[in-house]
Design brief:
By secondary structure, this protein is of the alpha+beta class. Helices cover 29% and strands 39% of the residues. The longest helix has 12 residues, at 39-50.
């Protein structure tokens, strides 16, 4: 896998109540990823960017919500979410901008 592709796989960390709960309970980090990203690409990208060891990756496709605007219905774009399990003792701290 080339490094340019890996830099484009991770889009943003997913910060939500559920993501915080999962991080505390299961030692996982949740990312918003490119919709064509594969599990091996996500694992390699996290290890490259944050210098941590990844135990496993689970992905979920999130469907876009149906929204109404001035009587017309539309649909938001769907996206892909990745739950990244880190090996014991590993941690990603987003506040300090990288690995801890």
């Amino acid at each position: 896998m080339n490094q340019e592709r890996l830099m484009q796989v991770l889009l943003a960390p997913q910060i939500s109540e559920k993501a915080t709960y999962v991080a505390d309970k299961h030692e996982q980090v949740v990312f918003r990823v490119a919709s064509d990203a594969t599990k091996p690409e996500i694992k390699a990208a996290v290890e490259l960017l944050f210098k941590v060891e990844v135990e496993g990756v689970q992905v979920a496709n999130v469907k876009g919500k149906v929204k109404r605007f001035k009587g017309a219905t539309g649909r938001r774009k769907g996206w892909k979410k990745a739950f990244v399990s880190l090996k014991p003792g590993q941690e990603i701290n987003f506040v300090e901008g990288g690995n801890a």
